[in-house]
Amino acid sequence: MGHVLVTGATGGIGVALVGALVEAGHRVTAVGRGVGRLDVPGIEADLAEPGTLAGAMGALEDAGELEDLTALVHCAAISPVAAVADADAEMWQRILAVNVASAAELTRLALPALRRSRGHVIFVNAAPGTTGVPRWSAFVGSKAALRELADSLREEEAASGVRVTTVYPGATATDLLGEVRAAFGRPYDPEACIRPETLAAMIVWVLGAPADAYPAELSVLPSPR
Ligand SMILES: NC(=O)c1ccc[n+]([C@@H]2O[C@H](COP(=O)([O-])OP(=O)(O)OC[C@H]3O[C@@H](n4cnc5c(N)ncnc54)[C@H](OP(=O)(O)O)[C@@H]3O)[C@@H](O)[C@H]2O)c1
């Protein structure tokens, strides 16, 4: 078992993920806002400000907390719903900062440790069907960029033994999904969705893949009812 850095640890999926990681015997450090309310150690960071992350990660490094790092799971995201006609520059900058640029920057800062441990980077993306969705261009655009970031990183770091996985969850029962469905005027039935604990268990399984193979991509859908 290893030491896993998790963003979005205070969210619906993130809380379940932290619980599953700890249950599996991993040490977890959360990165984000309000992480002090979690049961695991954390560092405060606003992912809307990627330029501040070097300071936050530097503090962890100075405390010797990156030495045994084995994995980084990017679970944070924002998902504003707005047509292109209504999405201003500030909104685009914010979503690309939180959903993409901070993931790239945290990965960059963690790479020296992850290379040492031949570690694993997991990007929580969104179901591959989310392409070209009216009123969701900024979100689907950010997730498309996140997929390309992951695919580039996988090839770049293959020689250093770092594994890179993109997880594509379908509808998962969190407050966020309820809000997104309401914004689209679509019904939300948590019972028809993936339980966050189930998705979390699958992410823990990915981290525990044997030495000779691992899933580069994992699509997770609610079972047919
Ligand atoms: N739920 C679904 O159906 C679904 C489906 C496909 C993919 N996903 C993906 O799964 C991941 C988690 O989704 P979720 O449903 O658990 O969403 P959530 O409950 O809204 O969690 C989002 C997390 O991101 C963090 N975050 C947002 N802005 C931040 C910022 N500026 N700085 C630091 N942290 C920030 C939030 O922390 P704060 O509380 O500080 O904002 C929270 O911990 C996301 O990447 C999402 O796109 C979800």
UniProtKB/TrEMBL annotation:
It comes from the Bacteria. One of its GO terms (molecular function) is oxidoreductase activity. Keywords: Oxidoreductase. Belongs to the short-chain dehydrogenases/reductases (SDR) family. The keyword Lipid biosynthesis does not apply. SUPFAM superfamilies: NAD(P)-binding Rossmann-fold domains. GO terms for cellular component: membrane. This is Short chain dehydrogenase. InterPro entries: NAD(P)-bd_dom_sf (IPR036291), SDR_fam (IPR002347). The keyword Oxidoreductase applies.
